Amino acid sequence: MSQQTADPELYAEIQDFYARHMHLIDAGQVDAWVETFTEDATISNNVNPHPAHGREQIVGVIRRAQQQLDADGIRHRHWMGMLVVEPTADGTVHARSYAMLLAVRLGEAPVLDRSTRCHDELVRVDGDWQIRSRRVHHDGRP
């Protein structure tokens, strides 16, 4: 485990970034959400062997997923916690967290859709944080 920890101001900045990032996707604001990634960002996970590279591919994957959720009458709510923020000498930040997705249907109790571990690499672009790389590990899956 890294012994270098984030100062409280950086930690709060990254935590705020994630809150805004997840609120955007949960509100269906895909265009604004994808702007929180670098142009050349990559998202990968242990369930899908094909990572998405670049904003265009990322937004395509998300739009297809949201269309399916809409057809099923489901809204997702993301909760991220247990955040570890590890700054590096070059200004990059490595962030690790647990993320849970709740599936919400009108008139029904929310259901835990999935539990994951998220590993992000964040960089500053024009003064704002953006995700350059996201690796997601779905718990209970190889």
Automatic annotation (TrEMBL):
It comes from the Bacteria. Gene3D superfamilies: 3.10.450.50. Residues 9-135 form the SnoaL-like domain. InterPro entries: NTF2-like_dom_sf, SnoaL-like. It holds the Pfam family SnoaL_4. This is Nuclear transport factor 2 family protein.
